[in-house]
Amino acid sequence: MPDDTTxxxxxxxxxxxxxxxGAVEGDWDVDLxxxxxxxxxxxxxxxxxxxxxxxxxxxxxxxxxHVVGATATYVSPPTTGPAVVRTEVLRRGRTASQVRAALVxxxxxxxxxxxxxxxxxxxxxxxxxxxxxEMPDEATCRADSRTGRSAIVGxxxxxxxKVMRVSFDPExxxxxxxxxxxxxxxxxxxxxxxxxxxxxxxxxxxxDALPPATFEVAMTGxxxxxxxxxxxxxxxxxxxxxxxxxxxxxxxGFVDETADVWDATGRLVAxxxxxxxxxx
Amino acid sequence: MPDDTTxxxxxxxxxxxxxxxGAVEGDWDVDLxxxxxxxxxxxxxxxxxxxxxxxxxxxxxxxxxHVVGATATYVSPPTTGPAVVRTEVLRRGRTASQVRAALVxxxxxxxxxxxxxxxxxxxxxxxxxxxxxEMPDEATCRADSRTGRSAIVGxxxxxxxKVMRVSFDPExxxxxxxxxxxxxxxxxxxxxxxxxxxxxxxxxxxxDALPPATFEVAMTGxxxxxxxxxxxxxxxxxxxxxxxxxxxxxxxGFVDETADVWDATGRLVAxxxxxxxxxx
Lengths: 280, 280
Prior knowledge:
The structure is a homodimer of 280-residue chains. Chain A is of the alpha+beta class and 280 residues long.
């Protein structure tokens, strides 16, 4: 075997979000992978967002730019396997371009996303901050997450759990044993299991990688996201991400949940808000 | 004059958001009105969102339902006058329907919105709250806003100012005289000037009715919204709305701003987040 074999093996995330030019201009062939599915067998919403993000950047043809804003509407859950991403460049701009990308299976739109593509820096904010959430260091959280995870009641570990390393703050671990604290907030460190570094595209996955924050309110059935909005604010530094995911208000069968994501230096790198349906 | 004349005069908001079935199934003819334009002569983003929301509800054909979630992408500013709203029902569901609506002028998409349409109640939340922002009562704010407004430096009053009654918390009035406090938060009471009561559709206007919250950071040029996400959480009670609009982080030429909207009883009725371009 040649020495450089490892260089030829792509990271799982990149392999699973590969987009190939399709039969029609603006179409991209993709393969929705089993590894990124959750308990119900459906692909994870953040994974789909990242996959569509890769197609959007390719469609704009500005490979040095990144998705800085994305609003996804989840119409129906796609199944794993082949699918097509239909892209339409709405605006090609100097500061920002805007692209619509629809994930299509059997001629039906399953996810509809509109994205803003622009340049990103690692510079500190010009104004304002959202202070990183306080929690124990990753090693401490990791040790406790292992103990907690072995005590999960009722939920089998989904394939997605193997793709990433989630180290929960021990204080939010009660939900794993079916006893939510009622506070509606999850906190965790997040890395990709194969060591792939975080970049702006993978942040689109990170904003929706944790279980529903409502699991810390009540152990309900699945909480399907209807609409998710994500902003990527900066190039992330190497190291694990710090994520706070919280439910705000549950009313009329819907809940809004917001995520804040900091890199290992404590810099805010991504934010998201989503509206999901919930039955209490 | 007959006694019932006033019954025949529609509220300005309803008149200005009227949608008429267009030439093609799913198309709606609209008229973008001067009254809802801002300083640069462009129609206000929240007004456009409400207009598209009306078309979305009509397209779904569920007139007793409301837009509970909307994500709008502002591609280019439309001009006042005739335009077409192209709607496409993505999913018709028992709990929630999803509709895409695009505002088209000269065959170009200027605003692209995907909306979730569902039932809304006035019931209190099942869990959680976002406590109403504290500020003086409307009358106190109103008196001070009048004084403040007469001292606006450099900015002519846009037509939109006549459509609504904004009563700013006196503590945030410094920006009106060109001396932002640096806190990046606006607080105000909001009513429609002709007395039209708030309803879920008009809340889509309310979430983006205030000036940019960044005006309380720095008096820059206009801060164009690229993407706006709004959630409507409950049927509002009669009376003025209480709005908090704040900038969170300005980085890399973009800012995220969040709005929380409570009805006169202090119940959270709408939320929004937006990503805008800004030059400091």
